[in-house]
Amino acid sequence: MKTRRRRLPDGRTAARHAPVNSRRPSGEAPGTASGVAANGYAPREPIHYQWVFEAAAAITVGCRVISREQDSMHRAGLVGVLFALIGLAFLPVAAKAAGDRPTVTLLNVSYDPTREFYEAFNAAFAADWKRRTGETVVINQSHGGSGKQARAVIDGLDADVVTLALAYDVDALATQGKMIPADWQKRLPQNSTPYTSTIVFLVRAGNPKGIHDWSDLVRPGVGVITPNPKTSGGARWNYLAAWAYARSKPAATDASAQAFVQALFKNVPVLDSGARGSTVTFVERQVGDVLLAWENEALLAVNKLGAGKFEIVVPPQSILAEPPVSIVDKVVDRRGTRKVAEAYLAYLYTPAGQELAAKSYFRPRDATIAAKYAAQFHPVKLLTIDGDFGGWARAQARHFADGGTFDQIYGH
Amino acid sequence: MSATALPTVPRARRVLPGFGLTLGYTLTYVSLLVLLPLATAFFKTAELGWSEFVAVIAAPRVLASLELSFGAAAIAALVNSVAGLLVAWVLARYDFPLRRVVDALVDLPFALPTAVAGIALTALYAPSGWLGRWLAPLGIQVAYTPLGIIVALIFIGLPFVVRTVQPVLEDLDAEVEQAAATLGATRLQTFLRIILPALWPALLTGFALAFARAIGEYGSVIFIAGNMPLRSEIAPLLIVTKLEQYQYAAATAIAVVMLVVSFVLLLGINALQGWSQRRLGIARTT
Amino acid sequence: MTALAHDSDGETLAAVTRRPRAARGAGRSVLIGSALVYLGLFVLLPFVVVFGEAFAKGVASYFASLADPKALAAMRLTLTVALIVVPLNLVFGVASAWAIAKYEFRGKSALVTLIDLPFAVSPVIAGLIYVLLFGARGWLGPWLREHDIPILFAVPGIVLATVFVTLPFISRELIALMQSQGRDEEETALSLGASGWQTFWRVTLPNIRWGLLYGVLLCNARAMGEFGAVSVVSGHIRGLTNTMPLHVEILYNEYNSAAAFAVASLLAVLALMTLIGRAALDARAPELRRTTLPSPNT
After folding, report:
1. Can you tell me the distance from the alpha carbon of A120 to that of C55, in angstroms, rounded to the nearest whole number?
2. Which of A388, B104, B190, C103 lies 20 to 30 Å from A410, alpha-carbon distance?
3. What share of chain C has pLDDT > 90, as a percent?
4. Could you say which DSSP state residue A306 is in?
């Protein structure tokens, strides 16, 4: 105690003490630096350090200007700054190490209900590619709401190919991200849509509420489950199919169509952000009486979860849902994967690819495969987005943009 | 807590080495990881301009989500203040079998990952769930309604109230209570006149902490919320939704509103804790 | 008020814990009973549900879903992230606590508030700000892309978001502890000729080791369980950037609720271990409770 008291007044002319004390940590500095490095993220590619030192130098200069501390004091501070920077700099290096790629990899960024399909398809393509070229290709998958997935790609998710729920979301890669040419949809056959689907109703066993057509969905007491059209591609198809139904009635106007969808959404108790979320709400949590779903999603639910629990009701009229595919030019050119990415998408159009799509309950484009699986797809009158809504850009602006018809439902 | 309130160290003599080193490290780390990223949110929002910013925030859907987030958080924090006081009281004052286990259990909501809490609560309260199936016939629906959100927020907020109130209760001097009792005060009077006034600051702090934590909560809520615009859509989810619609500026505008509220709350909590410590006279004479 | 002011922390605490617990009788049972019911209903039951649902399809299916390669990859990633995040925040925690608890300087309370801030910020916002910063259209995104440094939608982005969310934990724990300890011991050591580093290793570190461990425990629990922030920056690439909580969500969305709860049960066990560790530390160093609990991190 006494020693301390006596020292304190001495320290008044801090210059005498401070240099002695603060030089020590500087002297110890290398020891700690190696201590940090020993934590297990040793640099494999030291090139990436360059920017760290540049940044450190910049900060050093900045600190000199700002600092009014004694010289040695701020040197110690700079060592602290440097440590912090070096510590953080290990992140990209660690990423590099973690990202070492032994083989060719492709990233397919897709929407929700394609998980099972692409799991099977990726394995088939990888085998086929190996046979043809001897190269091993590993395909990584990312799934989520279609709009969200497109956003992630624009923000830098390195997708070699995108297989999304609707053309509007792929358009966003062209308009917002400038990652693909504007005419991307003309690059592959059939609007770049190797498989299609439609919107059907999934009801509980025995169809207790007697749901057969769109008009049944607006009856009071019928709980309708659909995801949010703002975030889910499938939900936009749902919405447009309902709109088209209301619009096709005799003497219908836009106002009556809007009143119809408004009544429909009054019956929606849960609005999930993606198609999968809605299916889980309906199937597992047993909320609602009818699920508006992709046909493939509904068939999958019925077949995967036991046919006794649910039934599929196909309305007399629905919409042709076209989930398109595209390579992402900016990414494949940077990563040098264009060839394999193009082959991947082309494989979707081959009989093998078409058969896998049909097995996952997508409607195949190939006539022979379609005939083979005709039994599982009910005939239904299908409206199209281009024929009946003037294309996605117009449908989006009219219905789903801020202030569009969907917002008006919830805005008032 | 509030470092400024405690005159722990006589004005800088800096006999101890390492001030420059550690402060430099701290400032850099915090600047790079907290300050710089948060600043981007404000700069991004500045792109909007004032009138657009107001338009984004004043949209019915945004207002509804903010109202819900703040409202549900306030209700949950209120429930937790009462229940947390009860739990803290029981833990601090009574001895009973398994008290230590119960004491440890209080922290479970804090240690349990939010997504796990979310799916567990949904499995409990969904109409087909463990509890939901008994509540449904009574006409009480918890999952997919604002009530579900409140339940989730009650879950995550409980430890904060208990853990701020409990040590204060333990520190309260039994002699004062005994003195009150010998002077003829009933138990209720003792509680209301002696104990509660001493607890106020801690209780308020616990409330504020639970509230602050609840307004931003995401993982445990989205599974159980139902996510209906205008009804059960919380503000953090709306941020994600806006983000997914490429409306970065709008998303950050909502984020900025929440950030400002969080910051004000934090300052309030710090002040409260300073007050609380002064009132209790927990003088750290070092 | 003077009656409440005790001068010696240790003695007071001992007195408090030894104090015979108050009042017996009906009121007592009612209070204990209702507290237990409340805790059971709101805290214990959700925890039990996790295991109940995890084993809903039997033990074999439980272990099968844990052995799934995608689940294993998620576990590996979660461990990796925690292994990077915890040491980073550990060094930061010690450094910041040293600067803040041992010295007075201007702007200190602002710095403390800044360290606290991540606690009050919504995890979604934590993710969002890193998207704004590192996204392809963000501030640093284009430059990072040019230099082929992956941050967003890769492991570093997940690490950064997690560091942000868990930043206050160790730091706040240590600041409170070191403030209560003051700096007498360090100064004595120095006056006896020890060097700065010797003082730190031989005096300070032993003094704060339990608090440090406590902070590490909390930080680790949060780091492994973070969902909101990580979900915004992850990119959801299966087997590559899915952490355990994200994997839980994915399984949950695949009608595979048993498997989702199986992976969730591992996280629940982690939570349980955190609690046990906490209780063990409480028993070993009771003063921790007093010094740390009023902080928002507990």
Report:
1. 28
2. A388
3. 44
4. -
Chain C residue with Cα closest to B223: C249
Please, are residues C236 and B81 in contact by the beta-carbon 8 Å criterion? no
Comparing A36-45, B9-18, B69-78, B155-164, which segment has the lowest mean pLDDT?
A36-45
Tens of pLDDT, residue by residue over A35-85, are 333 333 333 333 344 444 555 555 555 545 444 444 555 666 777 777 777
CA–CA separation, A233 and A213 (whole Å): 22
Pairs of CB atoms within 8 A across A/C:
120
- Least CA distance to A175: which residue of chain B? B246
Per-residue pLDDT at C144: 84
Kindly report the CA angle at C277 between C274 and C280, in degrees rounded to 5?
Answer: 150
Q: Is the separation of the CB atoms in A290 and A223 below 8 Å?
A: yes
B19-30 helix and A71-98 helix, angle to the nearest 10 degrees:
40
Contact status of A79 with chain B (Cβ, < 8 Å): yes
How far apart (Å, rounded) are the C-alpha atoms in residues A239 and B197? 57
List chains adjacent to chain B, taking adjacency as at least 3 C-beta pairs closer than 8 Å: A, C
Q: Shortest Cα distance from C240 to chain B (angstroms)?
A: 19
Residues 6+ apart with CB under 8 A from B35: C114
Distance CA A76, CA A26 (A): 6
Domains and CATH numbers, chain B: 39-285 (1.10.3720.10)
Name, in order, each residue with C-beta under 8 angstroms of C151's C-beta and a sequence gap of 6 or more: A91, A92, A95, C130, C134, C140, C144, C157, C160
Backbone angles phi, psi at A319, to 5 degrees: -120, 145
**Chain B, nearest residue to C281 by Cα:** B104
Closest approach of A191 to chain B, Cα-based (Å): 24
Facing residue for C103 by CB, picked from B12, B111, B202: B12
| pLDDT range class, residue C253, cuts 50, 70, 90 | confident
Encoded amino acid at A227, one letter: P
pLDDT digits (tens, 9 = 90+) for A169-209: 999 999 988 899 999 999 999 999 999 999 999 999 999 99
Residue B5: pLDDT band by 50, 70, 90 thresholds? very low
Asked if the Cβ–Cβ distance from B28 to A78 is below 8 Å, we say: no
- Calpha distance A204→A41 (Å, rounded): 54
- Average pLDDT (B128-138) is 88
Tens digit of each residue's pLDDT (9 = 90 or more) over B256-286: 999 999 888 888 887 887 776 676 654 433 3
Measured on CA atoms in the order B85, B90, B93, B99, is the torsion positive or negative?
A: negative
From the list A25, A269, A286, which residue is nearest B21 (CB)?
A25
Determine the residue of chain B that is closest to C232 in CA distance.
B240
The complex's ipTM works out to 0.85
For all residues of chain A together, what is the average pLDDT?
80
Chain A residues close to B126, C-beta within 8 Å? 285-287
Of A27-31, B64-68, C96-100, C247-251, where does mean pLDDT reach its minimum? A27-31
Cα separation, A76 vs A16, in Å, equals 16
pTM of the model: 0.81
Under 8 Å between Cβ of B217 and B236: yes
**Is the CB of A80 less than 8 angstroms away from the CB of B28?**
yes
C175 within 8 A of B284, measured Cβ to Cβ: no
State which residue of chain C sits closest to A111, comparing Cα positions: C236
* Window 133-152 of B, Cβ < 8 Å to C: 151
Which residues of chain A have a CB within 8 Å of the CB of C184?
1, 4
Q: Do B173 and C22 touch (CB under 8 A)?
A: no
Q: Which chain C residues are Cβ-neighbours of B151 within 8 angstroms?
A: 42
Amino acid at site A347? Y
Q: Let me know how long chain B is.
A: 286
Q: What DSSP designation does B74 have?
A: H
CB contact under 8 A, A8 and B15: yes
